[in-house]
Amino acid sequence: MTSISRAILPVLLLAFGTAASAAPQKLFADDRAMGSATASVQIIEYAAPVCPHCAHFSETVLPELKKTYIDTGKVQYVLRIFPLSPYDGAIAGMASCMPNARYFDFLALAFEKQVLWDPDGQTIADPHAGLITLGGLAGLKPDQVDKCIADEKEMARVNRIAEDGQKTYNIQGVPTLIVDGAVVPPQDRDWPQLQARIEGLLAADSKKR
Quick one: which H or E segment has residue 174? Predict the structure, then answer.
């Protein structure tokens, strides 16, 4: 695991406090997004690959969101990795090595296969070997995996965006959803509640036209 700990820039140690009021945010040039840039609704998700709740969102909510709103041009979805451990940085580095069209597919695979590589809350004898296995499932060779997780430029990008998220939204945990600039309460991020919020925003947007 020494290779991983050396490769990752210092992980942000964040103090969680009272959620700050949010305002709509212009995206960074290097944000990772799905959907139309002119969509009526913008959703930003701050997530950590090691987080089981983020994995649950990825597996249960995001597919519905993509099918119903992202693929139909109604929602633009932005994913920002919010690192809680060096392994989040490792996954971010591996994801950045994928072709742009497969970036989100790789992260979905990483969430699905947390049991292979994520030592958070479970016993994994060799997480690095798990990352190698995960990389193999995505078509990366072992030396490619090690090169990807050592990408300090990507680690700096992840930490910069996460630090901005902490300052802007006072993020208190992951996943955190920002819908049109407003922080969504944790109890409202399941699909029925999130869909109702989106429908309300779409209806309001339609009345303005």
Answer: none
